[in-house]
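Hello again, I could really use a second opinion on something today. My current little project is about how a certain protein chain folds up. You're getting the sequence in one-letter code plus the fold written as C-alpha cells. Here's the protein in full, and shout if anything looks odd to you:
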Amino acid sequence: MTNPRPLDGLRVIEVGQLLAGPFAGTMLAYFGAEVIKVEPPGDGDPIRNWRLLDESGTSYWWRSLGRNKKSITLNLRAAQGRKILGQLVETADVLIENFKPGTMEKWGLGPEDVKTDNPDLIYTRISGYGQTGPYSTKPGYASVTEAFSGFRYINGFPGDVPVRPNLSLGDSVAGIHAVIGILLALMAKKNARPSQPTGQVVDVALYESMFNLMEGIVPEYDGGGAIREPAGSTLTGIVPTNTYLCADGKHVVIGGNGDSIYARLMKAIGRGDLADDPALEKNPGRVVQQKTIDDAVAAWTSINTSTTVITCLEQVDVPVGPIFSIEDAFNDPHYQAREMFEEVEIKGQDGMAESTLKIPAILPKLSATPGATKWPGGEVGSHTQDILEEIGYNAEEQATLKDQGYI
C-alpha cells in the first residue's frame, strides 16, 4: 500500500516559467498535489532546453524540475487559450503564476477576475519586486534581485567584486517562500469560519525572499549604525569560523566559535597558550584578535592533510568538514544513507524505458506521509488530451484547437 502524502487531493495550476514558480510547483507535486503545468505549445518551458541536454535534446534539469507534473499546452497569447486556462482555474485549489505584475489582469485572469467563479482559490504570485510599490513593474531576475536585497553586498572579499553563488538562489528561495505561503493559506482555510471567504493572494517577491535571510543585519544597522560588509570566507563578529587550506591542497571548514569548542580547537592544534588566554575566552575578545587566531589555525592545517585535520578535530568534537563537489556527495555514505538521490526511468516516445537518471530528493523528510517522485519530467503537452477531456472538450474539439494553434 502506497503511503498517503500530505497534499493528496490538492489541485494546483502552475503557469510560471523558468524557476521560481516551477520550483514551488515541484515541491507541492512531490508531496502529493496534482500539479497541472501550463506550457506554451512547441518547446514548452525554456528550462527544458537549458544547460546539459540528454540524447533526446531535453535538459537533465527538467527531469527533476518537472517531476510529478501533468503538462498541458495552451497559447495564452490567444483568447481561446486564456479561456481554457480560466476553466482550469475554476477547478483549482491553488494557482501559481510568476509573470510580470499586471499580465494576468491584462488577460482577464487576475485575482479579482477569477474570484467570482472560485472564491476559495489561493492565488500565488511570484515576481521580482512584488505586486505593489514603485518597482513592481521592473523585470526581476534572480541575479538582479539578489543584489537589490542586500544579499550580494555581503558576499565576497573586502575591496573585491561582490560574488554570486553559481545558482539562481533567489528563484529557489522565492519558490520555497511561495510554498510556505500556500501552506499557511491552506491552514487559514482549514481554520476559517463557515461563512468566511477562504481564498486569498500570496504575494512573493524574489528580493524580499532573499532579504528574509538577512539575520541580524537590520537591527544592527538601526540600533548600532553598523553596515555589515563582505568578510570573505569568515562570518562577521564570530571567531573562529573560516575555510582553511590543508597540505594536500584541499580546503576544510572549521567552526570553532563556541567558547568551549574554541578551547578544544586550540589545544588540538597545539596552541594551549591561545586556549588558556583569558582575553580570548569569550567571542568579543576573539573578534579583536581574529587574525592571530586564524593564522594559528591556518599554520596547523597547512602542514596536515585534510583527512588528518578532519579526523583530529572530530575526535575532540570540533565542527569540521570538507568542501564537497557533487561528485563527492554522490560517493558519500551519509548522502546515501539519507536517500538524497532518487533514481527515475526516462521513457522514450514509445513509452518504453530508455535510461535511468538520479535526481535529488525534495525536502523536508516526513516519517508518516513522505513525499515521492512518481515520474520524472515528461514531454511537452503529455497530459493535454486527458485534462481537456476532463473539462468538457471532446476529441473533435481538441483537434480543432490543435489545428488553430491554441494547444
About this structure: The domain at 11-212+338-403 is CATH 3.40.50.10540 (Rossmann fold).
